[in-house]
Amino acid sequence: MNPKLAITLGDPAGIGPEVVLKALAQPRPYQPVIFGTREILEETWISLRRLGVQDLADPAALDIRDISGGKILQGVATAESGALSFAYLQAAIAATLSGECQAIITAPIAKNAWHKAGHFYPGQTEVLTELSGAKRSGMLFVAHSPQTNFVLRVLLATTHIPLSQVPKVVNAERIVDRLALLRHSLSADFGIRTPRIAVAGLNPHSGEEGQIGTEESDWLTALLVEQQVSGPLAPDTMWLPAARAWQDPESPIACDAYLALYHDQGLIPVKMLAFDQAVNTTIGLPIVRTSPDHGTAFDIAGRGIARSASMVAAIDLAISLASYRNLSPKI
């Protein structure tokens, strides 16, 4: 049976409505349920058709849970667009937690629009964690190489915090917790029981034996030996085997997953290698959630040039994860 997927429009002033309509034009084995504003989808469809974009899902044929609000200014983050995107997410989470939908795919939101609307969350991940009752969660980025069979998986040890706070947050307890979360997801969601995991160092050259920072020599190296994972690896070279495996089918696949210690350390290589293929999935939740790995792109909203490849990949991964969770024995 095809899964029923909850799909949100994200911030309606951004490219969310466009990439959703483009992605849904491609047939997939699932039933989409759109949480958004019907009028916005219809206006987007008309505008894109006038621009010559033909490969679009027809809003008239979609199951849309209509949520309306104030006037939206295309390309501008406002309190109204923030309120709507938050309402879309809340409704989609409720439908997924109730069992009506088997997974949720979220289009990108604008945090500043949420804040204007009075919703002071760092992002959608935190809302999903809170409303689902999860004790912990993590941002795992997944990308399937179109050239090879390699699957890039990168978990962030810290997410949306200033760089100055990273050394204060990254400690032994945090690393052990993230590795446990990652191992559970690799087993429960991907069927990898004995994963090969690599962990980046915090400092350039992983501290170079205490010459460029001491976190590695003080505690991180010993901890990773105890955890039986590779690292701490020099952050500037750790990604080279992944890049080779991404591009060359003859290259050995060195690792099943990577743990990056802060946001840009993990996401710069992910977006360099796989901008159109990368998907953000929230691990640790009782439900499946995926999201395209790009932002609202207000600067190109309404121009008909937004690429939907990452949204398509997010839908495909949600189908795969929902199916695997449904078919596999509980662990």
Could you describe the 3D structure shown?
- With 331 residues, this protein is α/β, with parallel strands linked by helices.
- It folds into two domains: 181 residues, Isopropylmalate Dehydrogenase; 145 residues, Isopropylmalate Dehydrogenase.
- 40% of the residues lie in helices and 16% in strands.
- An eleven-stranded mixed beta sheet has the order 3-2-1-4-11-10-5-6-9-7-8, with helices on both faces.
- Strand 7, helix 8 and strand 8 form a beta-alpha-beta unit.
- Helix 3 packs parallel to helix 5.
- The mean pLDDT is 95.
SSE layout and pairing:
Layout: E1 4-8, H1 16-24, E2 31-36, H2 38-50, E3 63-66, H3 79-97, E4 103-106, H4 111-116, H5 124-132, E5 138-144, E6 151-156, H6 166-169, H7 172-190, E7 197-200, H8 215-227, E8 230-233, H9 240-247, E9 257-260, H10 263-274, E10 279-283, E11 288-292, H11 309-327
Parallel strand pairs: 1-2, 1-4, 2-3, 4-11, 6-9, 7-8, 7-9
Antiparallel strand pairs: 5-6, 5-10, 10-11
